[in-house]
Amino acid sequence: MNTGMPSDELFILALPPVIKGFGMHDKKWKVKWDDKMFKHLVLDQQKKDLIEATIQVHMHKKMTSDIMEGKGNGLILLLHGGPGTGKTLTAESIAELVRKPLYRVTCGDIGTNPESVEEYLNSALHVGNTWQAVVLLDESDIFLEEREKFDLQRNALVSVFLRVLEYYDGILILTSNRVGTFDEAFKSRVQLALHYPPLDTKGREKIWNNFIKMLKHPRSSEKSPQTGDAIYPEEVDIEDLQDNLNLLGSQNLNGRQIRNALTTARQLAMFRRQPLGFRHLEQTIGAIVDFEGYIQETRGQSEASLAREGGRRAE
After folding, report:
1. Residue 59 is inside which H or E element, if any?
2. Which CATH number is 31-196 given?
3. pTM
4. What is the model's pLDDT at position 295?
């Protein structure tokens, strides 16, 4: 039935090209960038220098070494390593460093049909270029896996992804924890590939220390689930946590597990109406370690060993 209403496309034409955004959380129009985020990133300094150099030069002086117009002008970074090693956090830190929005795209958004993948990727990357955003394709392994002789759909999917990468003009960050399965053709498409090894004791201590420093500056109050009374995050025994920094760093956890342990410990302390201390972290870390041990016992070997045997990673 024709209602006489204009189409969605005509409605869009009536809109202004720029719309101001209001931050509902901070109740402010202006974006507040975290300039210290990249500085506090737990990553080898030489790798941080490479990231900053390539990003900053690309942002301020778009250089091209390809004679074909519109081809080869983008910056594609590959961050590869095991879970919880800082890949996604690096992408977030880069966006804060250059003061650009981070446009996150996941494999679930894109799908696996070659035609729809090409359409969605072109649309997403167009948005990234229009916003001058840093585009993050998280866990991009499905699009990067090696082509096989009899899997025509996979071959088409990989070919589409290669073509889209070749003609993209902005900053694209890919993350992967299965780099061993990559198609050979992707090597030449990536300008900078950085490996994120498992965290060592020193790295874990730095991450714990960063989180402890953040606890000194709480954002808001929270309520006890028992009484409903406000319990403030600043009720933290900072000295107790710092005194046990070596013990915290000795626990073989990745970055995401450290964050989860701290979040659960805070909830435990609030529930008990106690200042957050090392004893709460001991309890939550113990639960994580028990779970990891059970998984390893079930599989008969560690995740790193499985990844090595499966040809996914060399760790």
Report:
1. helix 45-60
2. 3.40.50.300
3. 0.80
4. 86
pLDDT at 194 over 80: yes
CA gyration radius, the chain: 23
The tokens for 255 are 């970055």
pLDDT at 198 over 80: yes
* Direct distance between the N- and C-terminal alpha carbons of the chain, in angstroms, rounded to an integer: 62
Q: Minimal CA–CA distance to 104: which of 131, 136, 143?
A: 136
Q: Which two tokens stand for residue 163?
A: 């073509």
pLDDT the model gives residue 227: 44
CA gap 309, 162 in Å, rounded: 27
Could you tell me where in the chain the CATH 3.40.50.300 domains are found?
A: 31-196
Question: Read out DSSP for 28-56?
Answer: BSS----TTTTTT--S-HHHHHHHHHHHH
DSSP-based three-state secondary structure for 230: strand
Q: Which residues, 6 or more positions from 175, have their beta carbon under 8 angstroms from its beta carbon?
A: 78, 79, 80, 87, 88, 91, 136, 137, 138, 139, 140
CA 140 from chain center: how many Å?
12
Q: Which residue has the higher pLDDT, 256 or 234?
A: 256
Higher-pLDDT residue of 244 and 222 is 244
- Which residue did the predictor score with more confidence, 160 or 172? 172
